[in-house]
# Entry
Amino acid sequence: MPDASAKAAVAAEPLASVAPAPVTPEQLEELQARAAKADETWERLVQTTADFDNFKKRAARERQDAARFANESLIQKLIPVLDNFEMALGAAQANAGSSLESLQAGIAMIQQQFKSALAEAGVVEVDATGQPFDPHQHEAVSQQDSAEVPEGQVLQQLRKGYKLRERLLRPATVIVARKPAA
# Structure
């Protein structure tokens, strides 16, 4: 039985006989070119990753700003309405004994200005008077007997409803007609 040192010598023999082949200058140049290309590709990957991370951060910041300032244009349209209300209140207090008609006319103009600002933003009134009751557009608070208006039709609108384009913001509050009891 061979001893341990003999086994080591036999095991080392194949390794010693397989010596690395000498590298030619052409192979060395090719290896250096490939290493340079790998380094360049790695640098591009690192730069692209950094650019993408910066893009994600910038996009998140822009989304937050868009949400925070989404109503900016609407508010800019409503501020003059507020100014006119303040001027009307000041004029009413200064001229407490003057005609009520001029105050009504001023408030009517402010209301029209306010409605036009909302209309520019896409807000539309839901007019329910005389319409068939629609639970998607109207909120019924009571029913009232009526022989003139068909059953299930809006008899009276208590509060206007509003839509923002196709989305309902607030349903119209209504009283619905029903057949009179016999």
